[in-house]
Amino acid sequence: MKFTLSWLKDHLDTDASLDEIVEKLTAIGLEVEAVDDKSVFKPFVIARVLTAEQHPDADRLRVLSVDTGDGKPVQVVCGAPNARAGLVGAFAAPGTYVPGIDVTLSVGKIRGVESHGMMCSERELQISDAHTGIIDLPEDAPVGTPFAAYAGLDDPVIEIGLTPDRADCAGVSGIARDLAAAGLGTLKTPEVRPAGGEGACPVKVTIEDADLCPGFALRMVRGVKNGPSPAWMQQRLLAIGLRPISALVDITNYVTMDRGRPLHVFDAAKVAGNLVVRRAKEGETVLALDEREYELTAEMCVIADDNGVESIAGIMGGEHSGCDENTTDVLIESALWDPMNIARTGRDLGIITDARYRFERGVDPEFMIDGMELATAMVLDFCGGTPTEPEVVGYKPHEPKVITFPFAEVNRLVGIEVPAEEQIDIFKRLGFGVSGSGIEIDVTVPSWRLLDVEGKADLVEEVMRIHGENNIEPQPLPSHGAVNAKILTTLQIRTRLAKRALAVRGMMESVSWSFIPAAHAELFGGGGKALKLANPIAADMSDMRPSLLPGLLAAAQRNADQGVGDVALFEVAATYEGDTPEAQRRVAGGLRRGTAALSGGGRHWAGNGDPVGVFDAKADALAALEACGAPIANLQIERGAPDWYHPGRSGVIKLGPKVVLGHFGEFHPKVLEALDVTGALCGFEVFIDAIPEPKRKATRTKPKLELSPFQMLRRDYAFVVDKDVAAQTLLRAISGADKKLITNVSVFDIFEGASLGEGKKSVALEVSIQPTDRTLTDEDLEALSAKIVANVEKAGGVLRG
Amino acid sequence: MEELAALERKLMDDIATAADEATIEAVRVGAIGKKGSVSERLKTLGKMTPEERQVMGPAINGLRDRVTQAITARKIELRDAAIEARLATETVDVTLPVRPAPAETGRIHPITQVTDELTAIFADMGFSIAEGPDIETDYYNFTALNFPDGHPAREMHDTFFFEPGEDGTRKLLRTHTSPVQIRTMENQKPPIRIVIPGKTYRCDSDATHSPMFHQVEGLVIDRQANVANLKWVLQEFCKAFFEVEHLNMRFRPSFFPFTEPSFEVDIQCDRSKPGEVRFGEGDDWMEILGCGMVHPNVLRSGGLDPDEYQGFAWGMGIDRIAMLKYGMPDLRDFFSADARWLSHYGFRPLDMPTLFGGLSS
Fold this sequence. Notes:
heterodimer; A: alpha+beta; 7-stranded mixed beta sheet; 42 strands; B: alpha+beta; 13 helices
């Protein structure tokens, strides 16, 4: 919402400076977004051309002698065709910044002749696009005085960002009312007087749907002459960015801005028969004033005559019945519209107008008739003519809205004491009615705040913003009176730990889009209908991600394209299996590309990094699970990872037969190809929301440490097994030989060779044996070895001779 | 005696010229070994007369002691030289670079770090952390938060919708973290003190807007919790978060459907140096958050009587305050996973924000 300072002062008697007004506007909730104090125009003065001689070296240039008011004529070289002796125009001295050409003037030579300034065109001053010649003012314009003051260009423009609730301030008068209430002057908005009228309005109005149109006022003014509106009105409209069109149209725009009351004018000669306010017929079309054709639906409200739709109600008039310079009889419309319907229609048609803006926020119903009267008075003033009596249909004065308000409510919600008298005074200054006495009063909401003010809390806001929120002293929130307990949930703690654990492993945390291309989602088990956005911001951000991996893979490739081929990324965030809260999973995922292994990648004098592979991903996955408190010793690793992984180089991490805690591996080449991703890559995802909740412990005491006094022994074994026998099988078989004595089994070598036979491999293991109650004898050890070998044999292994 | 002196000269010479441990050992055996030249002379003492012994005893014993000492000294010399020589051969170029530790190269994203900073501060004020789903219903995102159907405020949210389901309703991506207010009130009786960090979505994209962004929301519900308390919480938060001792704030009345009264809050800052913002000084204002008293209709949606319970809420962009504090110029970079950006703007994994150790290092 834009307005000028002089416009505001039509409504507000105040001595406050521009700065004070701007500060107060922001303080009472009318946030000032921009102020143009017009200082750019200050250096331009009115000057008279004394003589205009032909430039010696240029046909199209003239050398002017210009009187700028100080008695010392200056020489100016000018190319304007209208530059002539006697012309009075706008002069810019050297050093002046000329906005239209974005240049600060200096003394210069033009074709050998010195020029000490510039006579400006309207475009050079950014007043209009006119550039056919320099500004040509009336003979009597006062030479030497500021041009801006003479031309009415020195009126500061203020722009406020209006919140959706403050429809009452969508007019200058409403802003003045708020400022006056806040103590910045006296409201002096002129009363609207009925224009009277002769005879009934010949055009009648029928409202078919009273819900969409709670009131409609219409009046004809006959015998008008629709020329330009007065200069002061044009200047104000221009200042706030509206193009003057004609007196009749400008009046509607002016009243819209001045009072927040949108109006419409029809050329009566083009209206056939009476007007009817009705729902549009499905598919009905109208050519609107913006010269575009709109197709309407039965949800939309229109004003129609015998010819069809003449106006999209409350949003934009129709081209057909619009007023122009030939209009002699005008119909002035002032109506009320259902805000929700206006909002929906405007949104569906994609039309943004000043009328829609106001009607969808709610206009003052009590000003419907006044708005028409105010416009009528202006029409009579600017265009002449004879008004008819108004035709008012469907209008009923609004039901007064009364709120019972305890004065203590201000202190309850805000924490400040505002005396009852001050509260009453604030209400009255804002136009609220106040009755009753004691600890609570009845407050009547003014007609211009009906949609905004609903209850006590709204009244508290009125008192507080006018009283001044800077008068509220901060008060500490009471302490709970105890040391804070743990405040994070298990899942929040796991999320934090997983992130730090993966970052410590040299990975960088990525935050990538929750929505990914449909094709990517489909490759990773997603792409279902329920998770497709109806209005994605871009075609490749259409589907909620079923996995973190597609986003990470795309990111790795982008990094590689930037020359960072060795990159390790992770993300701990949501994936979506469905559209319910339960179907939103919490996943830790990561990947490594190139040689970005835990031990460091790239080429190095001490040994180059190998390309990353399935075991890098496995280690990351287990590290994330371990950080989250998963029972690592009880996890099983199996084949059968989802099909975006390499089938032979991937695994599933399970807890028991049913709970899947994650997957890891290298990727399927077809998937990488479909994602247009290359390079050595491995990745994992673990479902940190699937880890069982830790048991509540009764004590924080750790179990007692039992250290054996007997030396630990290590024995090595090598077994030959079929190639597809899993190492885990051997580890289990050996551990099972004596769960007490065998404390660890590790694989230290894998060997495959012709000597072992086709399809065989040798697995070398180190077994740690920890006696607890006595030193083991040779017999004890032999018995244990025999048991180990027997167990492995059962699992298909033979001790390598 | 002459002979002894000659022997001593020879032995001392041999000791001094012995070049390695083997040679000196040979000298030792030859001199004071079982059959060494000095040992042999010692054996002659037994056959001497007491008078002779009185002279020769100290002479020969003295010789033995001096030779033994010299050998020991020479041995130490030679060992030291041998160690030195070995060490010299073991010398490496210590300027060769070592691999950086993974804990040094890993990075925590600024959003995570700032969320941890927020958590540390609000935990100190007695708040818990609440979360909710990204995919929401119209009810939780709008209706329960006092956005009437068709209200212009809904349009300001540029909502992402899903296709309507079988029942005709359409889910949406939450446009703010406020739905969690309702979900919390439904499940927890007051007093409530929560902060809600999380992802939010709006159909909007430029240098300061992203279709996905992060918000943190705060909610206090109690029998007494007013604007003055709200001011205190936000003031303390901003001081702690921006790590300054004083910070002027400006509360401007504003409008949000779910709060009444509502405010936008500006903080004092100095933006005179390009690319740098200093808080707590200067005469510029920067909008940082929106807040207000929870609207009575929102309390009702949460099953609470607005005449019995009251409270306040606020919301701000995590990405935005991260940008303000740490100076990232463009929001879109947050979601690009560019390793160079992460390396520069990210945080080391062991830099964990705490109040006792400082939020940032």
